[in-house]
Structure formats: structure tokens, C-alpha cells
TrEMBL record, chain A:
It comes from Rhodocyclus tenuis. GO terms for cellular component: cytosol. The keyword Transferase applies. It comes from the Bacteria. One of its GO terms (molecular function) is DNA-directed DNA polymerase activity. It is an enzyme of class 2 (transferase). Its EC number is 2.7.7.7. InterPro entries: Ribonucl_H (IPR013520), RNaseH-like_sf (IPR012337), RNaseH_sf (IPR036397). This is DNA polymerase-3 subunit epsilon. Keywords: Exonuclease, Hydrolase, Nuclease, Nucleotidyltransferase, Transferase. Residues 46-216 form the Exonuclease domain. Pfam families: RNase_T (PF00929).
TrEMBL record, chain B:
It comes from Rhodocyclus tenuis (Rhodospirillum tenue). Keywords: CBS domain. Residues 22-127 form the Cyclic nucleotide-binding domain. It comes from the Bacteria. This is CBS domain-containing protein. The keyword Nucleus does not apply.
Length: 239, 636
């Protein structure tokens, strides 16, 4: 009945989670951070591009295994400012799944205690806007894990490049396509496909292109990317 | 932040950079240092990355993806690359960053570009840390691309070290104390000194020993004897005043230049105070070269027999090597070799005309292929034919037999002189290539009508014909027929274009060069097949389509470029690319010949230094540009 227990456990609040003192302090420090100003220009913004690997593609039942993140700060990627964590798994994912992301059974078991892993992630992101390609999946996986292990509702601003890119580069691809299509178009080499950091870096390079293009087209801020995404989604639904 | 993630990206970056020089040779520790400090930035198409008005630069850039175009502002250099494109793995702007000054070039993204950026402080730290990187940057600055010729020059100067070169200072050329006289010295006295010392010229100096005039042997006749000037007159009355002087530190080359510029035979070397130190005559400078152009020409033109011509042929090569050493460009050099080979061939023909009676026949000796294009290199075999006029069809057989007899002897003699017989039998002694004007025209038109692969191959050899001896106007008539038949013949030109596009520049996607096109010689590039020919074939199509009569590739490119409205900068870029490849061929052949091997065209790019590799790459890019233009024009 693991799914049932997980369902219930995800409803727990932080107080019920028995977090250690240090963990509670870290969480409080994160909560105290101010919300980001999404109306500042791209070139004065810290974006965090994330990619997750999980035990499968079922957003409701599969478990978060790793998070990779690359910061794009003032338009530039600094290899010193990147993040990766593997959450310790009690139950190792299937062999087929391992073949996808390459995080083997022992690596999964040797991962970091999930609350600490997630606290490290929160500490890395602070309250920066988060960016991903097909972000719903990343967002759901991360939010669920935060809720379950830390009792935190993330409430971050998410930007989905799968919607923003075709709006900015209509002359190239004006449709919802896979990440690989965009990477190919920009000749971006993915170092190691399905490695969370590598995918995040590739996505971050796409964000650099988006920032540059957006700047020349009136989409000069994170907020404008959010609007772009909203209107694209709306158009798709009703247009 | 996160060590494992950082290390992964650093490793990936390092693996990427290792594909390119100088990173492929860089010390592991320095590489780690570099990759840990790189940041990645994006530049959209047409965005400037570095401009002169950005001031002193804060970053050093390495292209990660896409192409960056460098555009200079009135760059001066021997080879003037006004624009240059940079590909992944190439770094910029090395000179400006090192010198801590604003960039002289503008660097623009011509595609979507990702660039690694290294803060300048880290750049200097890396320079201190890595001898490889340091050598690369210093070498780069020392030569600053486009001045490759000077590098080649330095290399050859060493080989020609036993001889004095044009770079020697005048002080090393002056062997004798100068002979001089005061202005008031009488003519009689001056001429006496000259006669006694067997001196050709005397310098007139003032009290400070500064030259005020010069008086030479030839002046005696024109200025003294003929006008009947009294021998008691002071020398000042008849001397040439204000002789040309050069500082004693100037080079032989400066002296040659001054002589050519002012039409003078003597240059006076003076010290800082303007005092006479010596006299350099035209003859002194010619003596610099063991063999001089004029002498060789003369010895060829007056050689009484084939034996002496053989010696002259050797001198041609020696002289060509000297010129290579003195930094003469490939275009001039190949033309020069062709010109001297022409002279040799003409002399061989002349000598044979003494033994063969061709009276009453109008004929022209044609050369084909590289000789026809004035592009001969050191290793060159015969490619020739005969063209004649036959007014009476009944005489044709007889006339051809007489010419063939003559041609056989010429071919054999040319072989002895150093032009091996053509393996493909493209020689005037071949009855197929000893034809009347009408027959040649029919042959050419046949190839144009039915452009099968064989015909196209023939076209690429024979259409580059050039008359060498005899009635040149016959060859011009053939040229007119050819141009008329090709100029608006889209079908034929398209087939020629397709043929020209069948070989691509050996530029690799990952490595710089494709070096495995020839299975028998891995690791090398055939600079003729995959280099020069790319330009030659394309230039031929452009020339034939725009009615350009020239056969020389550089000329064809310039003239047809003008006719096809290609900017002269662009044409010049292509020509420079071609010339650089020719220069490498010459150098390589010379090296092979010196080591007793048949001079081939197979170059190992790993043997090139960094600058040469970059320029060779640029040369191939120019070939690619040319091919793209061809593709566009003929929709192939």
C-alpha cells in the first residue's frame, strides 16, 4: 500500500515531519527570503534552470530521484554555480528506468537523505524564478517531494521554455516540439542526455538564446516570459 | 556549489576544448584551471561580441558553437585578410587582450554563437601557468595571422643562409672603402684615379665627408668628351649632384627598391652624421644571388645546345628557392617559374627549328594544364600540343608528319632539360594533339556538345591552353571560338560546375581537416586534388561563362569576379586562399626534392605550425565559398 501511505504522507505539515533543529532553521531562513522582482531585466536576474530524473513518467506515483540545476545569472552560465543532488531511495527504480538516467541502484541508495537534499536545493535556488523545458513535470515532481519531505509549498514562478521558445522564434519552429528539436536547431550539444545536470545545462543555453531574443522584442523581463507562456497556452486552448 | 555537477561540466568542457589546438597539447593542470573559470554566454546572429569601442577588454573568448566573423579596420599585412571567420575552438582577441588595449577588430556572431568567456586576470594567470598556452599566444601575436609569408620566409632564410639575402644590411655588402674626391678636384685628376683603380664611379664629398655628388665612367663620355669639357675643370661642374643615400643599416632590399624607384645604379651608404661609408652598386646586389634572374634568362636565351640548357633549368629552381626565401608570393613565384620555363621551352624549340624545316607552315606551340595557366610548381611534366593552318586538305597529312617529326625531338629535348614526358601522352608529338585550327575547334566543340566525364576532364586540361611559340594569333582564334561556344551554354557550364563540385574542401566537422581521403596515404591532404584544383576548376567555369580569356586562375578569379559583380574584397580573399595553398605546395615540393624524392602534393597538416593551420583552414573556407557561389549560380 505504498501509494496510499505516500498519498497521506504528502499531506503532512512541517511540524508533523520531525525535522531536526538545523533543518528547521534552514527552512525558516529560506522562507524569510524576499520574493524575486520579476520586473527586473533578464541581464540583472538570476534564473535557475532545472531538470529532474525520476523513477518513471507518472507524475502522481513516481518518485523524484535527482535534481540538476544550472544558474543563468545576468545572462551568463558559470560552471561554479551549478547544482546536483541525488535523493536517497529506499526502493530502487526499475532496470529500464536506470538505463534512462544512468543512476544505478547503489547510487540511488547512497543518495542524500531527501530532506537534506531538498533543503540544499532550496538553499541553491533561493526564490529565483525556475525554468525548465516541459516544466509541468519538473514542477510537479519537485513540489510533491518538497511537500512530502519538508511540508513546504514551493510557490515559485515557473517558466516553461516549451511555450516561450516557439513564441520567440516563430520563424524557426512555431509549435510545441521536443527539447531535442530546439537543441538541434541551435546546435547545442547535450553532454549526456538524461543526466539532470547535462539536460539542465542544455536547457540553460536555450534560455540564453531566449533572453537574447526576448530583449530585442519587448520581452525584457522574467515577468514578460510568464505572460508569453500564459497567452500561448490560452491561444492553444481557445485560439 | 555542487562539486560533482561542476566537475562534470568542467570535464565536458575540457573534452570539448581538447579537440582544438592549443588546448590539445595543454598541460592537464592548466586545462583544469582554465575550464573551472570559463563562463558560457550566448550571442544571437548578427550581434557584436567585441568591438573597438568596448575599450580595454575584460574577457578572452573561445567559440563554443557557431561562427564568429572578425572584421579588421584597415588592417595592414602582407596577406591582407580583411575578414576572417572563427569556428568552435578558436579564440579571440588574443592580441588585444594580451596588450590590454581595445580590440582593433570587430567580432560579430554570424550565426547563433555560444562563447566561453575567461576573465582577463585568469587569462594572464593561465599564460604564466601554461608554457603551451603562452607559446601559442605569443606566436599568434608575433605573426598575427595573415603574415604567414614572413614565417615561411624565416624558415627559408635559414636554408638559404649560406647566401646573403635581400635582408642583409648594407654594411655587410660594402666590401671596399669608398673612393672619393673634393668638389674642386680637377677632372683630369678624378679620371686618373678611376682609371688607375679600375673604378666605375667616384663620390664627391664636402669637408665633413658628406656626399654631394657622384661621377661615373659613363659620365666621362656623355658629360666630358662629347661636350668637350676641359680636363682642368673642377669635378663639381660635371658630377650628378645630390646622389641618393641610405642609412648604412638599411637592407639590400631597400637599395634595390631605391634603384628601381629612381632609376639609379648606385646607392651611397651613410652613417648617422650623413658621412659616406660606402657605395652599393647594382652589380653588388645582383651578386647577392648566386644566380640572378637576368643572367639565367640570358644564359637560356643564348644557350647553344641542350646540355647548357640543362644547367640553366637547375638554376631556375635555385632561383625560385631564393625567391621563396625572400618572401615572394606564390602568384608571382608560379608565374615566374612558368615564365622561365616558357623561355626554356622556347629555346628548346628554337634549337630544334635549326634542324627541322617548317618553312611555309603557320603553326603555334601550345601549352596546357598548369603551364597553360602560368601556375607551374617545381614538379611539372609536359603538357603541350601543336596547332597549325592547312589551306589545302591534300597537304594535311604531309604537314602533320613534318610537325610531328619536329615535335618528337622537342618533346625528347624537353625531357632532357627536366620536363618529364607526359604519362598521359598529352604532348605535341601525339598525332591527336597536333591538329589544324579547324580540327582543334571541332574537338573543343565536340566536348562542349557532349559533356561526358571524359570530355569534362579534357576540357579541364585543354581549355587552359596558351600559345608559347609560333603564330600566337592562331591560338587567339581558337580562344574566341571556345568562348563563343561556352559563354551562354548553360548546360555545358552546369556540367562543368558539377564536375568542379565533385571534390569538396577537406574541412572536417570535428577535426580541422579531413586527412583520410586517400587510403594509401592516411594523415595527409593532397593539396593539388583537394586544394588548388578546387579553385582552378571553379575559376575556369567562371571564366568560360563570363567570356574571360585569361587562363591564370588568379586572373580568372579577379576578372570574372568583376564581370559577375563579386566585390573585389571577396575576390581578393579567394585569390589569397588559392595563393596560400600554392605556396604550401611549392614549399612542400621543394622540401621533397631536396630530400631526393619526387615532389608530390601530400601535406601532413600536423606538420604545420598553428598559424599556418589556421590560414590553411581559412583558405579551404574560401574554396568552399567559391563552390557555394558556383552551386548557387548553376543550381547543382
Amino acid at each position: 500500500m505504498s501509494w496510499l501511505s505516500r498519498l497521506f504522507s504528502s499531506r503532512k505539515s512541517a511540524a508533523q515531519l520531525d525535522l531536526a533543529e538545523a533543518q528547521q532553521q534552514a527552512l525558516a531562513a529560506w522562507r524569510a527570503l524576499p520574493a524575486p522582482d520579476l520586473t527586473r531585466p533578464h541581464y540583472q536576474t538570476r534564473y535557475i534552470v532545472v531538470d529532474v530524473e525520476s523513477s518513471g513518467l507518472d507524475m502522481n506515483h513516481d518518485r523524484l530521484i535527482s535534481i540538476g540545476a544550472v544558474a543563468v545569472v545576468n545572462g551568463v552560465i558559470d560552471f561554479q554555480d551549478v547544482f546536483e543532488t541525488i535523493l536517497r531511495q529506499d526502493e530502487v527504480s526499475t532496470t529500464d528506468n536506470i538505463l534512462i538516467h544512468g543512476i544505478g541502484g547503489s547510487a540511488q541508495r547512497a543518495g542524500i537523505d531527501p530532506p537534506d537534499a531538498l533543503l540544499a536545493f532550496l538553499n541553491y535556488c533561493a526564490k529565483a524564478p525556475l525554468v525548465a523545458y516541459h516544466s509541468v513535470f519538473d514542477q510537479t515532481m519537485i513540489e510533491r517531494a518538497l511537500q512530502r519531505y519538508l511540508g513546504v509549498a514551493l510557490q515559485a514562478t515557473w517558466i516553461d521554455l516549451a511555450w516561450v521558445m516557439p513564441d520567440l522564434f516563430r520563424e524557426r519552429i512555431d509549435a510545441q516540439v521536443s527539447l531535442d528539436n530546439w537543441l538541434e536547431l541551435f546546435a547545442i550539444e547535450n553532454i549526456q542526455r538524461h543526466n539532470a545536470v547535462s539536460d539542465a545545462l542544455a536547457t540553460a543555453m536555450l534560455l540564453q538564446a531566449a533572453i537574447s531574443r526576448g530583449g530585442g522584442r519587448g520581452a525584457k523581463t522574467p515577468a514578460s516570459f510568464v505572460d508569453t507562456e500564459k497567452s500561448r497556452r490560452w491561444m492553444r486552448r481557445y485560439g | 556549489m555542487s562539486n560533482s555537477a561542476t566537475q562534470m561540466l568542467v570535464t565536458a568542457t575540457s573534452e570539448f576544448l581538447r579537440r582544438f589546438p592549443p588546448f590539445d597539447r595543454m598541460e592537464a593542470e592548466a586545462m583544469q584551471y582554465l575550464c573551472e573559470r570559463l563562463k558560457l554566454a550566448y550571442y544571437a546572429k548578427d550581434t557584436p561580441i567585441v568591438t573597438p569601442d568596448m575599450g580595454v577588454l575584460q574577457h578572452f573568448y573561445i567559440v563554443q558553437r557557431g561562427k564568429v566573423l572578425a572584421r579588421g579596420r584597415g588592417e595592414v599585412g602582407v596577406i591582407d585578410y580583411s575578414t576572417m571567420s572563427l569556428s568552435p575552438g578558436e579564440a579571440f582577441p588574443i592580441g588585444s587582450v594580451t596588450a590590454q588595449r581595445p580590440s582593433t577588430n570587430t567580432y560579430t556572431a554570424v550565426e547563433d554563437v555560444f562563447c566561453y568567456e575567461l576573465p582577463v586576470d585568469d587569462y594572464f594567470a593561465l599564460m604564466r601557468m601554461s608554457p603551451t598556452f603562452n607559446a601559442f599566444c605569443t606566436q599568434y601575436i608575433a605573426s598575427l595571422l595573415g603574415q604567414s609569408r614572413q614565417q615561411l620566409q624565416a624558415e627559408f632564410a635559414q636554408r638559404a643562409a649560406e647566401q646573403q639575402t635581400m635582408n642583409s644590411p648594407l654594411s655587410s655588402i660594402i666590401k671596399k672603402e669608398p673612393v672619393f674626391a673634393r668638389p674642386e678636384t680637377s677632372l683630369r685628376e678624378v679620371i686618373g684615379i678611376m682609371a688607375a683603380g679600375h673604378i666605375g664611379s667616384i663620390i664627391i664629398v664636402d669637408d665633413e665627408q658628406r656626399p654631394t655628388g657622384i661621377f661615373t665612367q659613363s659620365d666621362v663620355l656623355k658629360r666630358v668628351v662629347l661636350p668637350g669639357v676641359a680636363l682642368e675643370a673642377p669635378i663639381a661642374a660635371v658630377m650628378s649632384p645630390d646622389p641618393h643615400t641610405l642609412p648604412v643599416a638599411s637592407t639590400a632590399y631597400d637599395a634595390v627598391l631605391a634603384m628601381a624607384l629612381y632609376g639609379i645604379r648606385h646607392v651611397l651608404a651613410v652613417d648617422e652624421g650623413g658621412r659616406l661609408k660606402g657605395v652599393v652598386s647594382e652589380r653588388d646586389l645582383f651578386a647577392l644571388q648566386r644566380v640572378g634572374l637576368r643572367q639565367i634568362r640570358q644564359s637560356i636565351e643564348t644557350a647553344p645546345d641542350i646540355g647548357l640548357l640543362c644547367q640553366a633549368a637547375k638554376d631556375v629552381r635555385q632561383l625560385a628557392l631564393n625567391m621563396l626565401a625572400q618572401g615572394v608570393g606564390a602568384e608571382q613565384l608560379t608565374q615566374f617559374i612558368s615564365a622561365l620555363n616558357d623561355t626554356l621551352t622556347r629555346r628548346v624549340i628554337q634549337l630544334n627549328l635549326d634542324r627541322h624545316d617548317l618553312y611555309g607552315i603557320d603553326w603555334a606551340w601550345l601549352s596546357f594544364g598548369s603551364e597553360g595557366r602560368d601556375e607551374q610548381t617545381f614538379s611539372t611534366d609536359q603538357d603541350n600540343g601543336l596547332l597549325f593552318i592547312c589551306t589545302d586538305i591534300m597537304d594535311r597529312e604531309q604537314t602533320q608528319l613534318r610537325l610531328l617529326d619536329f615535335a618528337r625531338d622537342v618533346n625528347a629535348d624537353l625531357d632532357r632539360v627536366g620536363f618529364p614526358l607526359c604519362r598521359g601522352n598529352i604532348m605535341a608529338s601525339n598525332p591527336e594533339l597536333c591538329l589544324t585550327l579547324e580540327e582543334w575547334e571541332e574537338k573543343f566543340l565536340g566536348w562542349i556538345r557532349t559533356p561526358d566525364p571524359k570530355a569534362l576532364l579534357n576540357a579541364s586540361i585543354f581549355f587552359d591552353f596558351r600559345p608559347l611559340f609560333g603564330q600566337f594569333h592562331l591560338a587567339h582564334r581558337l580562344r574566341l571560338t571556345l568562348l563563343k561556344a561556352t559563354q551562354d551554354n548553360r548546360l555545358f557550364l552546369r556540367m562543368m560546375a558539377q564536375n568542379a563540385l565533385s571534390v569538396l574542401p577537406p574541412l572536417g566537422r570535428i577535426r580541422d581537416f579531413v586527412t583520410d581521403a586517400d587510403i594509401e596515404h592516411p594523415g595527409t591532404i593532397d593539396l593539388k586534388k583537394f586544394g588548388a584544383r578546387l579553385f582552378v576548376d571553379a575559376a575556369r567555369v567562371f571564366a568560360l561563362s563570363s567570356g574571360v580569356a585569361a587562363t591564370n586562375t588568379a586572373q580568372r578569379l579577379r576578372l570574372s569576379g568583376a564581370a559577375l559583380k563579386v566585390s573585389s574584397d571577396e575576390s581578393a580573399g579567394v585569390v589569397e586562399g588559392f595563393n596560400f595553398i600554392q605556396l604550401l605546395r611549392l614549399r612542400h615540393q621543394n622540401f621533397e626534392l631536396e630530400h631526393g624524392r619526387a615532389g608530390d602534393n601530400r601535406l601532413d597538416p600536423d606538420q604545420l605550425n598553428e598559424v599556418e593551420r589556421r590560414i590553411l583552414k581559412e583558405a579551404f573556407r574560401q574554396a568552399r565559398k567559391l563552390q557555394q557561389r558556383l552551386k548557387l549560380d548553376y543550381q547543382t
